[in-house]
Amino acid sequence: MSDPVPPRAEIVVDLAAVRHNVRVLKDVVAGAAPVQLMVVVKADGYGHGMVEVAAAARAAGADWLGVATIDEALALRAAGDRGPLLCWLSAPGDDFAAAVAADVEVTAYSEEELEEIAAVGGARVQLKVDTGLSRGGAPRRLWHDLFAVASDLEREGRITVTGIWSHLAASDEPDHPANDAQEEAFRDALALAASAGLEPGVRHLANSAAAVLRPSARFDLVRCGIAAYGLDPAPGASPPLGLRPAMTVRARLVMSKEIAAGDGVSYGHTWRADEDTTVGLVPAGYGEGVPRAAGNTAEAWVDGVRRPIRGRVCMDQLVVDLGGELPPPGTEVVLFGPGDLGEPTAQDWAEAVDTINYEIVTRIGGRLSRRHVDSDVTPGGHAR
User: Fold this and answer.
1) Where would I find the beta strands (DSSP E) of 129-185?
2) Distance between CA atoms of 223 and 90, rounded to whole angstroms?
3) Chain-wide mean pLDDT for the chain?
4) Which residue of 49, 147, 294, 382 could cross-link 196, Cys pair, CB 3.0 to 4.6 Å?
C-alpha cells in the first residue's frame, strides 16, 4: 500500500475488491436458469466491516444479504439497507417482532420456533432442513410435521413461507460422498414441502464452494461468504476465478535489535537464534486476534521481504526475525494481504497455523483500527 502506515496497527479493507468479487461470483452462477446471489455479511462481515461490505455488495449487484442474528439484521436496516435480507440463527425469546417490523426474513428450524415466529404475525419465514450437517435445521424425521404446520400457518395468514434451505458439510471437498447425499436429501425435502402445499420463492443449498464447484446445487440462490471477500472457499480444488482478497493487516516496527547466537526469543524461549541475527518488535498479538499458534510458523512482510515470526506470539506483540537487517522504527510490516507483492496471504497464515482462511480474517481485530478504502476511486489503496 502507498499511503502512510498508522502509528500502531490497522486492518485495511478495499471495498473495490469486494465489488469485484461479487461481480465475478454473479458471472459464475449466471446460466440458462437465473440464480440469485446472497452475500453473507455475518460476524461483522467476516471481520471486514458488515455495514461497509454490505453496501459494496449491494452496489455490485448482490440480490440478498445474509446474517446469523436478528441483531445483525437490524444493524443493517439501521444503516439504511432495504434489500432482501435473511437471518438464520435465533434463540427462544429473540425479538422476532423487531425483525418483522424491519422486513427481515427469519429462519425456522422447528415447529416450536415456527409457532413463536407466527405469534408475531406477518413474518416472512424460511424453513431450514438438516440434510446431513447435523447442525441447525429440522432433522429428516420431522420434515413432514414442520412442513404441515408451516402450510397451516400460511393458510391462516399468520406467516408467509418464502424459502426452504439447507447447508452442505463438505462442499470444499468436491468428491466427498456427503455432497451427493445431501443434495439428494434436499431434493427429497423440496418434494415433501410441495406435497404439503408450500411454494417457496427461493430454494438454496450452495455456499461459496458449492456455488463455484457444484452447479447442480445452485437451485434458485447461492450464499457466498468467504469468496465475496476474495478468499478461496476450496483451496486446491477451486478453479482460478480472479478473486481479490479485500483485507490487509499491517503495522510498523516499534524497534529492531541485535541478538546473539543462542539467545531465546519471547516466552518460554521456544525459539533460539542459531547464529547472530536481528529481530523486530511488532505491536500486535493475540489481543488483536493474531493466532498464538503463529509463533515459529507464520511469516510477515517487512521492508519487502518475508520474515519468519520467532518465539511465542504475546498478547500485545510479536517478534520477527530480520535476518541481520536493522530497519528503523516505523518500517511497515504486513502480516497478511492480497499477496500481490509477495506478502503472506490469509491463506498462508491459515496453513501455517492449521486452520482455515475464514478464521484468520474473522478473528483479527481487537485493538486494531479498521479503515475502508476504495482502490477504484483512488488507485494505490488511499482512503476515500
Assistant:
1) 159-165
2) 19
3) 95
4) 147
Q: Which helix (H) or strand (E) holds 51?
A: helix 50-59
Q: Alpha carbon 360 to chain centroid distance?
A: 10
**Domain ranges in the chain?**
63-227, 247-373
Q: Binding residue per annotation — 315?
A: yes
Distance CA 287, CA 270 (A): 20
- Overall residue count recorded for the chain in this entry: 384
Confirm whether 63-227 and 247-373 share one CATH topology. Answer: no
Which residues lie closer than 8 Å to 141 by C-beta, 6 or more apart?
A: none
Answer positive or negative: Cα dihedral of 102, 98, 358, 177: negative
The two counts, helices (H) then strands (E), for the chain are 11, 19
CB 37 within 8 A of CB 316: no
Cα separations in angstroms, 156 against 105, 118, 121, 122, 175: 19, 10, 10, 11, 44
pLDDT in tens, 112-128: 999 999 999 999 999 99
Q: Which three cell numbers stand for residue 279?
A: 529481530
**Angle 358-215-20 (CA atoms, 0-180°, nearest 5)?**
50
Give the separation between CA 139 and CA 129, rounded to whole angstroms.
6
How far is residue 39's CA from residue 222's CA, in Å, rounded to a whole number?
A: 9
Kindly report the CATH number that applies to the domain delimited by 63-227.
3.20.20.10
Q: What is the pTM of this model?
A: 0.95
The annotation status of 50 as a binding-site residue, yes or no, is no
- Phi, then psi, of 164 in degrees rounded to 5: -135, 135
Phi, psi of 69 (to 5 degrees): -110, 160
Beta strands in the chain (DSSP E): 9-14, 36-40, 64-67, 85-87, 106-108, 123-128, 159-165, 202-204, 221-224, 247-252, 255-259, 264-265, 271-272, 277-282, 299-302, 305-310, 318-321, 332-336, 369-373
Closest CA to 357 of 17, 47, 25, 99: 47
Residues annotated as part of the active site: 42, 267
The CATH number of domain 247-373 is 2.40.37.10 = yes
**Residue indicated by cell numbers 465475496:** 228
